[in-house]
Write a structure and sequence with these properties.
Blueprint: E1 17-18, H1 20-23, E2 33-35, E3 38-43, E4 48-57, H2 87-90, E5 98-102, H3 114-123, E6 130-134, H4 135-139, H5 141-155, E7 159-167, E8 174-175, E9 184-185, E10 189-198, E11 201-210, H6 224-227, E12 228-229, H7 231-238, E13 240-241, H8 245-248
Antiparallel strand pairs: 1-13, 2-3, 3-4, 4-7, 5-6, 7-10, 8-9, 10-11, 11-12
């Protein structure tokens, strides 16, 4: 099944709501596209997700080597192909700095029955779950945020709900990687929100990274405390409303997430 808002026992973590400005550019009126263990709301003008949502079960995590990586990037059958950015449009060219970055991390879907985990892993390669990430960001801070979240969830044997997506701005640069391509616009950054029950209370933490910080010879080092931002900041930047998670945000009370 796709993202489950009642995955955390006794709590409902609803999908974020789109402001009217986003609804006008969202595929299928902003209704989510369901895949195995995750859901996507797609930006039909930009060619990438508005956001993704997935669940993690920390008690049934499968060892990493059990499901090997197979790079089978392909079109999402639920979205018209011409709306999706694929290898022939966004990720080729000799001097292309942009990696095919998973929004829902494949590793975070590796829990529960192995067959379902393998199916979820395979579906994570749909182009609707991929967006261009600077190679230094993809290999450093973005992956480290995911590792930190994953390890914290695994340690605490807890369930988690995770939302993630690009930050789109009017100043996002246009990019043509190879002759004859239609241009794409590179997202300014990426955000992520994790929701867990921590010390018997629903707790949310938001994180934000900017691509420009990694377009340098020595990219910034990742520090989860420095990258953590208020949920309301992400609402302002994304045009999304995170409902109850706004009240569960520890930074609202001046405290970082300490797992």
């Amino acid at each position: 099944m796709p993202y489950d808002p009642e995955f955390i026992t006794g709590h409902e973590v609803a999908l974020p709501k789109l402001l009217p400005s986003l609804q006008s550019v969202a595929f299928n009126g902003g209704n989510s596209i369901g895949h195995t263990r995750f859901s996507v709301v797609f930006h039909q003008r930009r060619g990438f997700a508005i956001y993704t949502a997935h669940n993690i079960d920390g008690e049934t995590i499968i060892d990493e080597e059990v499901i090997p990586r197979r790079d089978r990037f392909r079109f999402d059958p639920h979205v018209a192909r011409h709306l999706q950015v694929d290898n022939d449009r966004g990720y080729r060219g000799e001097h292309n700095l942009w990696d095919r970055g998973h929004l829902v991390r494949r590793r975070s879907l590796h829990w529960g029955p192995q067959g379902e985990a393998e199916e979820a892993d395979s579906e994570s390669y749909f182009w609707t779950n991929i967006a261009p990430q600077h190679s230094r960001l993809h290999d450093t801070a973005w992956g480290m945020i995911e590792d930190w979240i994953f390890e914290a969830t695994d340690r605490s044997d807890s369930s988690a709900c995770v939302f993630t997506g690009p930050v789109y701005t009017e100043a996002d640069p246009e990019r043509i990687n190879a002759p004859g391509e239609l241009p794409i616009r590179i997202p300014a950054g990426y955000w992520k929100i994790i929701a867990i029950v921590h010390r018997q209370q629903m707790t949310a933490a938001g994180f934000l990274v900017w691509q420009r910080d990694y377009d340098r010879d020595e990219p910034l080092e990742f520090d989860p405390i420095l990258e953590q931002v208020r949920v309301t900041t992400l609402e302002f930047l994304t045009g999304l409303s995170f409902l109850s998670l706004r009240q569960a945000d520890l930074l609202r009370f001046g405290a970082q997430l300490d797992l």
